Amino acid sequence: MAGQTTWNKITVAAGTDPWNFVPDNKKAFDAAGVYFQVANDAERTGLAALAPGGVLPVPTMVFQTNTKRWMTWDGAVWSVPGNPYHAEFSGPIGTTVGGSGEGPGTLVLESKPMDSSFVEVSGSGALKVLKAGKYSGSFMVLPTTSPGTSSVEVTIPGSKIGIAVGGDYGGKEIFCQFGPRYLAANTVISFVLVTTNSVTYGSYVTISKED
Q: In whole angstroms, what is the distance from residue 54 CA to residue 117 CA?
């Protein structure tokens, strides 16, 4: 299909073009710039292999359902549109019987911010904000089995900035939002899960600087 390009940049057949239904429709949809949703980081990362020529168009925008955020691909990194100070991390948590609290292992950066100078991993289960400002984010754990009575906590030295407590969630996510709250430069934020059952979790942390 030689085609023509419409006002919204979709390639369609011209009146004189021979028509080949499957490849021509595929070309039209590939050019459409459609917004679509992905379930998680792995599905988002795997998009490139599905794109024409194995390369994602710039920009590509998706809605990621597990974090409930729009994400934009700029040819190098995924980021939250309009916010250069946003990062996402993940890490495993192992807990023991009796309600003892555990933090994630060393958090791993999953979504690189456009400006990476605002936060860094600080030991096990903690992040350090490098610039003073107003911060918010979330801490989510994903049980593989029943955690029993459980809670997740987000703390800075001397105070809790977020807490969520629940009963037996039976395999559902446990989610805690924190902020917006002003934090001084070099403040360390730690993340803790407390359960009455011995289970292993994955965790997911998002953090944004809002000013």
A: 31
